[in-house]
Amino acid sequence: MNALVISGGGSKGAFAGGVAQYLIQELKRDYQLFLGTSTGSLLVSHLALNEIDKIKSVYTNVNNNSIFNVCPFTIKEKHGTENIAINHLNVVLNFLKGSKTFGESYNLKKLIQKTLTEDEFSCLKNASKDIIVTVSNLSLNQVEYKCLRDFDYEEFVDWIWISCNYTPFMTLVKKKRLRICRWRIRQYGAN
């Protein structure tokens, strides 16, 4: 059993995508299990489909507007460098609307829906490969594993999106407690 595990961290995850491309395309490695967290969860479905050009296109064209519908940051260019700061007005307005976070990332969910189609999801569901994303359950202070096979398209898109959301800057999602992919994790020998 070969597993490809990709962590989060924005550009670190994107770098891992490049390494995964090399392993899959150049070294012809075949993986049965794809597991990702945060930006890694964005990559694993596409890597399992061998859609590497699609990943490159998305990662090289994404910007704050692709992710945030309420952006908690401002980016100003000064002396040839970009300076990132908190957009205090957006943060205050977001809190006045009842949000518990500095920004909202519903545009990212739309981007995930646009880049992982229902047809691709069905293809993955019928394949012999397992795709798992990790999410943090802040209420229970634990990590949970969400297997593509256990959910329908909308639910799995939600889990990818939730995996990517970085508290307190992105949307905090409250979901009913659903099944955890414990039996598959045990099947692969992890605790």
Tell me the structural class: alpha/beta
Topology order in helix (H) and strand (E) letters:
EHEHHHEEHHHEEHH
What's the tally of helices? 9
Strand order of the largest sheet: 1-2-5-6
* Residue windows where pLDDT falls under 50 for at least 5 positions: none
So what's the overall shape? globular
Percent of residues in helices? 40-55%
What's the number of extended β-strand segments? Answer: 6
* Main pleated sheet: 4 strands, mixed
Strand content: 15-25%
Provide an overview of this structure:
The chain is α/β, with parallel strands linked by helices and 191 residues long. Helices cover 45% and strands 18% of the residues. The chain is built from nine helices and six strands. It has helices at residues 11-26, 39-48, 52-61, 64-67, 88-96, 106-115, 118-126, 153-164, 182-187; strands at residues 3-6, 33-37, 73-78, 81-86, 130-137, 142-147. The strands form two sheets. A four-stranded mixed sheet has the order 1-2-5-6. Strands 3-4 form a two-stranded antiparallel ribbon. α1 (11-26) runs parallel beside α2 (39-48). The chain is globular. It starts with a strand and ends with a helix.
